[in-house]
Amino acid sequence: MDPSRLSKLLLGAVPAALVALLATAGPASAGLLFPESGGGSPSAADIRTLYIIIFVIGLLVFLGVEGVLIWCLVKYRAKRGRVAAQIHGNTKLEIGWTVGAAVILVFLTIATFVMLPGIKNPAASDIDANGNPVASNAAFATTDQPKVPGGHSMNIEVNGKQYVWQFTYPGDEKVFSYTRMYVPVGMTITLDIRSDDVQHSWWIPELGGKADALPGYTNKTWFKVTEEGVYKGQCAELCGRNHANMLAEVVAMPFDEWQDWYDTEAQEIEDAEEFAAQQREQMQGSQGAGSSSTESDTESE
User: Fold this and answer.
1) What are the DSSP calls for the chain, one per residue?
2) Given strand 247-253, what is the order of strands in its sheet?
3) Residue 31 φ/ψ region, left for φ over 0, alpha for ψ in the -120 to 50 degree band, beta for the rest
C-alpha cells in the first residue's frame, strides 16, 4: 500500500476511534464528572459535595494560572528589535502565591475533616426494626465505625466469591440472596464485607464509596437509602476473568414489602431444608433396605 494513502487512512481512523472510545466509556463511568448520589444516602451526598468543592477550587486555580500564562504570552511576546528583559525575581509575587496555596490547602483540610464523619460514621435510621418512624440522632466521629445512633439498624454480611456477591441477612432464619441485596427504605444498613477467595471491591456508586473485600479480613461500611428504587454497581477490583460479570444491585423498598420478601425467603429456606431432610431419610432407608435384602440372600445361600 502507498505510504501516503496509509497515513491518510490512519489520520481518518484516529478521530473515529476517539469518538467510539468516548461513547463506550460513558456507560462505564459512575457519573460523567462527579460521583453519583441519586439514592439519597447521606454518605454518597457528602462524598459528592466534597468532590465538587475540591473540583471547583482546582478549576479556579487552573483557570487563574492558565489565564495569567496566556496574558503574559500575549503581552510580552517577542517583537522585532526588542531585547527580553532579565527578571531575577519578585518577592511579593512569590510570597503571594506561596501564602495563597497554603490557604487553599488549609481550607481543603478543614472541609475534609468537617465532612469526613458524615461519610465514615453511620447515620441514624429513620425507622426501627418494626418499620416505625424514629427520632433522628446525630452521628459522632471515631477512628472505628461506631454503633448506629439510636441503635436502629440492619447488619448484612457481604461475601465476595468468584464471581458473585452473597448477602446474608440478620435473624435466626439466616436468609440470604445473591447479586441482589434487599433493604427497607429509611433503615441504616451496616455491612460486614469479606471475601472467600481473592480480593474484590464492593461498590454501589449512588450509595457511597468503595469497600474492599479481602480474604481473612472484615471491612465495614454503611448506607441509608431514602428513595425507593434499584441501585446498580459491580465489583470494582479485577478479580479474575469473569470480573465484569460480578454485578450487584441494592433494591430499596418500603418496610412492609421488605418484610413480606424476607418472610417468603425464610419460608422457602425452611421448606427446602425439610425437603432435603426427607430426601436424606428416604436414601438412608433405601440403603438400609438394600443392605437387609443382601444379608437375607447371603443367609439363604
Assistant:
1) --HHHHHHHHHHHHHHHHHHHHHHHHHHSSSSSS---TT--HHHHHHHHHHHHHHHHHHHHHHHHHHHHHHHHHHT---TT---------HHHHHHHHHHHHHHHHHHHHHHHHHHHHHHSPPPPSB-TTS-B---------SSPPPPTTS--EEEEEEEETTEEEEE-SSTT--EEESEEEEETT-EEEEEEEESSS-EEE--GGG---EEE-BT--EEEEEE--S-EEEEEE--S--STTGGG-EEEEEEE-HHHHHHHHHHHHHHHHHHHHHHHHHHHHHHHHHHHHHHHHHHHHHH-
2) 180-184, 247-253, 229-234
3) left
- How many other β-carbons are positioned within 10 Å of the β-carbon of residue 209? 18
CA pair distance 46, 37, nearest whole angstrom: 9
CB 215 within 8 A of CB 33: no
Our CA dihedral for 144, 52, 48, 40, rounded to 10 degrees, sits at 130
> Cα–Cα distance between 282 and 289 in angstroms, integer?
10
Q: What is the pLDDT of residues 77-89, one digit of tens each?
A: 777 777 766 677 7
List, for residues 149-192, the tens digit of each pLDDT value.
Answer: 766 889 999 999 999 999 999 988 789 999 999 999 999 999 99
Q: Confidence class of residue 196 from pLDDT cuts 50, 70 and 90?
A: very high
- Residue in 190, 219, 201, 76 with CA at minimum distance from that of residue 124: 190
Q: Facing residues of 138 across strands?
A: none
Q: What global pTM score does this model have? A: 0.68
> Whole-angstrom Cα distance, residue 232 to residue 248?
6
Class of domain 35-78+87-287: mainly beta
Contacting residues for 295 by C-beta, under 8 A, at least 6 apart = none
